[in-house]
Amino acid sequence: MTARLVQVMQNREVPAPARRDAGHLLGRLGWEPEGGLDVWIEIPPGPFLYGEEKERQVIARAYRIGKYPVTNKQFARVIEAHGYNRRECWSAEGWAWRTGTYDSKAPGWLQDQLKNRPPKERDRPFWWGDERLSSPLCPVVGVSWFEAEAYCRWLALEAGLDPDGPAAHRLPTEEQWERAVRGVDGREYPWGNTWDRLRLNCAEWWAGRDLPEWDDLKAWWESQQYKEANPTPTAIAAFPDGAGPAGLWDASGNVWEWCNPRSREEQWYPLRGGSWYTLRRKCRCACRFDDVPGDFSVKVGFRVAFPGPRPSAF
After folding, report:
1. Which residue range forms the structural domain that includes residue 298?
2. What's the CATH number where 258 sits?
3. Partners of 257 in the beta sheet?
4. Structural domain count, the chain
5. Which of 30, 51, 91, 173 has an alpha carbon within 20 to 30 A of 289's alpha carbon?
6. Residues of the chain with pLDDT under 50
């Protein structure tokens, strides 16, 4: 049964809702891609082309990065280990977010959202109980930057590392993310320079056609087709032909991915990769977006980087 479901999930000719549902069912049956979910890909040092202008940048030190975005199944380990209540899993700013003392410093619009998620309810991702969004193989969503950071710190503690040390797990920098996703040649998408809406989970994939402008996207959101499709994130193994040159999956579309800011003093923290809700131009490797670190969007997840030696457990 699982082999048939994998075929459906990864078949370019199958309609988007059926592919999504096959992945959700596989996750609930306990299936995982070959090698499991905790797979690390090593990125060597060296030059690469970065950003919209394809500027030459250099990765000075090899690092490892998750093959997939962190899934609900992986994130569940932190909840089960009571990581939300362990002070050592949080930075000072993260603990302020967790306990509510951060809220008064947040922008006004976010303060309103945080009222709907008081500290007593910040013990799991915001949409953790939503069946559409909590399938085990789908990227975890509804997590603030601070929650993503806490997951990285928990991984470091589980591996016996100092979570504040130079060898600990962490969110990738934008340069690390783009080098791992894009390769060295400045390509537009992980798979190359030619657009193909069947290689990723984005608005055009769900719509079954190109949506050239913002008005086209808004019209689709209001359409009967959108209501019937009920777009959501998809399983992280749904798009094998969307992988990049280093072997990372799901880096274009599905969920935006939190990255580390250049400075903790910045108000806006970087997001990369686009999402299931966005247009193709937002899913390009060079596209940059951002959000405040305390927000917890339904379109945002993350993956982990690891600059130290290969971990034994995770």
Report:
1. 2-306
2. 3.90.1580.10
3. 272, 301
4. 1
5. 91
6. 309, 311-314
